[in-house]
Amino acid sequence: MNDRVKRAVAILILVVMAAGFSMTVARADMGPKPSITLTVTNGPEEYYVGLLYLSQYGKEKESTLMLDVVDEEHVKAYLESFSYDKWCWYKSPVGKNYYHSSKDATYEFDYSVPEHFRVILITGDGTVYLSADLTKTEFDAECTYDLITGMITEQREHAVAKRIATVVVNFLVTIFAEMIVLLLFYPCTARNLLCLFLINALTNIPFNVYMVYFNTSRFWAVLDLFGGEIIIILTEAILYSLLLRTKDGEKSWLKGIRFAVIGNLVSAFSDLFMPDFLDYLKSIVTGWIENFIK
C-alpha cells in the first residue's frame, strides 16, 4: 500500500476515534450497556416517568407520594431527594434519567440501567405512582408499565432472535472496522483476511454471547466490558503477531500489538459513532432470524 492510501486510512481512523472521544465525554465510557425500553400504558395525558433502584441504605427522609408543583425544576428536585422504602431514583452519570410524557409513550433508558427496578410516574396533578418491582432478564429489555395494574412486564417473544442479531451485528461491525485498520499494518491478502476473521470469531463472538446471555447487571457489565476487552486485546495481539504476515512475508510483533490495540479501539468507538445505524441493522437481522426460525 502506498503512503497516500495509508495517510487516507489513518485520517479516517482518527476521525472515527475523535468522534468517539467526543461522544465518550458525554457518555463517560464506551461499549455496550444494559438498557430498558419502557412503554407506559393507561397513563394520563401528562406525566413524568423515571426508574427506581433499591438502595442498601436509602435516604434519611422518606418521600411523600405527592408533589405540589409539577414542572421540570420541581420534578427533578423531587427525584433527586426521593426515597421510599429504600427505593431511590436511578440517575445515570450521563444520558436521560427521566422523561416528560410523549405521544408514543415509549422511553429509552440506555445507560447501564439497574437489573432490579421499579417505575416512578408523576402525573400532572402531582400524584406519584410507584410500580411493582421487576428483575429484567434481557440485556436490552423491552418492558411495559400498566398504570392501572401497577405491574411491569418484560416482552420476551423475540428474545432469542434479538440476542443472536446482537452477536452477529457486533461481530460484523468489528470485522469491518478492523479490516480498515489492517490496511495500515498489513497487506490485504487472503491469508491475512482469513486470520482476521477466524481470530475475531474466536474472541469477539464468545464475548458478545456472554454479554447478551448472561450479563444484565449494570455493575458487572462495566467490569466485564473492560476486563473482557483487555483479555481480547492481549489474545489478539499474540495471535496477530504469530499469524499475520507483512508484505515481506514476515511476522512482526510490533505490528501485531499495534494492530490489536488500534483495531479494538476503532471497533469499540464505532458503537458510539453510529448507534442508530447499529440498532437499524440489528432490527433487520432480527427479522431475518425470526423468518428463518419459522
What keywords describe this structure?
single chain, 294 residues, alpha+beta, Immunoglobulin-like, 7-stranded antiparallel β-sheet, 4-stranded mixed β-sheet, 7 helices, 11 strands, 18% strand, elongated
Could you please describe the fold and organization of this structure?
The protein is α+β, with helices and mostly antiparallel strands and 294 residues long. The chain folds into two domains: 3-30 and 158-293, no CATH class; 35-155, Immunoglobulin-like. Helix content is 52%, strand content 18%. It has helices spanning 3-27, 72-80, 159-185, 190-214, 218-243, 253-273, 275-293, and strands at 35-41, 47-54, 83-84, 87-89, 98-100, 106-109, 116-123, 128-130, 134-135, 140-146, 151-155. It is elongated.
Short description:
By secondary structure, the protein is of the alpha+beta class. The protein has helices spanning 3-27, 72-80, 159-185, 190-214, 218-243, 253-273, 275-293, and strands spanning 35-41, 47-54, 83-84, 87-89, 98-100, 106-109, 116-123, 128-130, 134-135, 140-146, 151-155.
SSE topology sketch:
Layout: H1 3-27, E1 35-41, E2 47-54, H2 72-80, E3 83-84, E4 87-89, E5 98-100, E6 106-109, E7 116-123, E8 128-130, E9 134-135, E10 140-146, E11 151-155, H3 159-185, H4 190-214, H5 218-243, H6 253-273, H7 275-293
Helix pairs in contact: 1-3, 1-6, 3-4, 3-6, 3-7, 4-5, 5-6
